[in-house]
Amino acid sequence: MRFPDSPVFTGYQAPSRVESDIGDLEVLGTLPPELRGTFYRVGPDPQFPPKQGNDIFFNGDGLVHMLRFADDGRVDYRSRYVRTDKFVAERRAGRALFGAYRNPYTDDDSVKGMVRGTANTGVCLHADKLWALKEDSPPVLMDPESLQTLGYHTFDGALKSKTFTAHPHFDSETGEMFAIGFAAKGEATPDIAYYVIDKDGRITHEAWIKAPYSGMVHDFAVTKDYVVFPIVPITSNEAWLRQGRPHYHWDPRVPVYMGVMPRYGRAEDLRWFKGHNRYSTHIFNGWNEGRRIFVDTAVAKGNPFPFFPDITGAPFDLGASAPHVSRWIIDLDRTDDGFDEECYDHEVCEFPRVDDRLQTRRHRYGYISSLDVFKPWTRSVATERPMMMFNSMSRFDFEEKKHERWFIGEASTLEEVQFVPRSRDAPEGDGFLIALLLRHGQPHTDLAVLDAMNVTAGPLALVRIPVRLRPGLHGTWVPHWKRPANPLRR
Length: 490
Description:
With 490 residues, the protein is mainly beta. The two termini are 33 Å apart. Helix content is 3%, strand content 38%. The protein has 3 domains: 1-136 and 144-151, no CATH class; 167-308; 345-472, no CATH class. The strands form 8 sheets. Strands 2, 28, 29, 30, 31 and 32 form a 6-stranded antiparallel β-sheet that branches. A 5-stranded antiparallel β-sheet has the order 1-5-4-3-33, with no helix packed on it. A hairpin with a 7-residue loop joins strand 31 and strand 32.
């Protein structure tokens, strides 16, 4: 069997299919002594060629990567596939059995009815376990030290939703995790389940709502007092799945909706606001000042995904797909159902992050992967994901509405940026930025470490991983003071 000769499976996006343990990585430069903890990152890396002959990037098997920064400055690396039901069944068969992205009608008869999740999108630590996440299935728990897969997690049967978000949010003061499941009653259903999970990993609150239309609710926002559900026009329909069409289509005819509910509210407390057609994939953070809610995000005018067609048949618009730093403002005292939007910057960006300690509260700085169109870079490698070929790391100052940027160099792609505080009580912004740099045509991958308050100076150090990593999606930093007390060891 061979992988298809298509952009998704060739060049720098070619599957690596490698699990490895590499000790004492080479460091170019000097690592700051305060950088102690673990960086986890996950991404799609298919173990077998796709059943349908070709596929989209989002449908690969989840491969988790771990970089452990020890007290003595040593950095060790480990990677393991998430042993989902899909992964195990296909490894036994020696071939792909599951078909197109989120389309069970294309699966082999031998796996009908099985959980289809790939656990390839998000990763986080909560209640002393590592959670590998994909928004079409329940979470998968892993041991945070060995990366041994512990299995799907349904909270002892308390998780009624068939799905669980790839982007949970956290309150550092209460230790709570906030999660949603969209398409919660099955593919293309408009049902959304909302969960609050305590610091020990128990569901303490559940609410169910119905969206105005069925679509991708990839991220959401939580504030001190409210939760916000953005409904954006990447729409789904079960009839398309039966016809073998892509799971999602862009619909330029429908508005964006914002569902607002008290943080511990019920469906009867929900209020919908709406605005003009646009798209947001990821959210920096949300907070509220009384009854005014602020959601900082990256907003595009049109469809960001060329592999999800326009429902009207219109061609993909590259310019409209570019996201920019923006702020949504929802005033609960408004008498109409509108909300406001402010565009803060015209830099093309994605993967927005803040200091995780400030989730649900007001922040000043945001950290993003960005595209400096005036810098030289290898446009020939911008294939299926044209607006995810980021060549710069940026810190955005929401108070001064400006950014600082570091260009990573030619023939390289920047992944999601993660902020690491210098210490447990360090003020916002005082710390480091870390991100993987994919080196096109090179047999290695670098992890860059920058001073978060001096981004333009470039890296303090590069940690060299002597294997080529396939592009990934999201990651998380776990400081040494949060490391589980009794991890399984192998």
